[in-house]
C-alpha cells in the first residue's frame, strides 16, 4: 500500500474513533509533496524549503476551512 493509501486508511480510522468519542467532525488537509520530499529523514535545507512551500500551499488552498475551524474553536466554552 502506498503512502496515499496509508493516509486514507488513517483518516478513515480517525473519523471512526473520533465519532465514537463524540467529535462531530474533523478537518483533513491534503496536499501534494514535491517528488522525493516525502522522505521523513531528509533534513537537507533544500528539502525543508520545499516542504515549507508545500505547507504554504496547503494553508492557502484551505484558508476558508481553516478560518471556519478557528471561528468554531473561539466560540467554544470548554
Task: Report what the structure shows.
The chain has helices spanning 3-20, 45-61, 63-75. The mean pLDDT is 86. The protein folds into two domains: 1-30, no CATH class; 31-78, no CATH class. With 78 residues, it is an all-alpha fold.
The averaged pLDDT comes out at 86
Series of secondary-structure elements, N-terminal to C-terminal: HHH
Structural class by SSE content? mainly alpha
Proportion of residues in extended strands: under 5%
Total count of strands: 0
The outline comes out as extended
Number of domains: 2
Computed Rg = 16 Å
The residue fraction in helices comes out at: 55-70%
Query: What is the CA–CA distance across the termini?
Result: 39 Å
Describe the largest sheet: none
Number of helices: 3
Unreliable stretches (pLDDT < 50, length at least 5) are: none
Labels describing this entry:
78 residues; mainly alpha; 2 domains; 3 helices; 62% helix; 0% strand; extended
Amino acid at each position: 500500500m502506498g503512502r496515499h493509501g496509508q493516509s486514507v486508511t488513517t483518516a478513515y480510522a480517525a473519523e471512526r474513533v473520533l465519532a465514537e468519542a463524540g467529535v462531530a467532525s474533523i478537518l483533513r488537509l491534503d496536499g501534494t509533496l514535491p517528488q522525493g520530499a516525502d522522505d521523513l529523514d531528509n533534513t537537507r535545507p533544500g528539502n525543508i524549503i520545499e516542504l515549507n512551500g508545500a505547507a504554504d500551499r496547503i494553508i492557502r488552498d484551505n484558508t476558508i476551512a481553516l478560518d471556519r475551524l478557528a471561528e468554531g474553536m473561539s466560540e467554544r466554552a470548554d
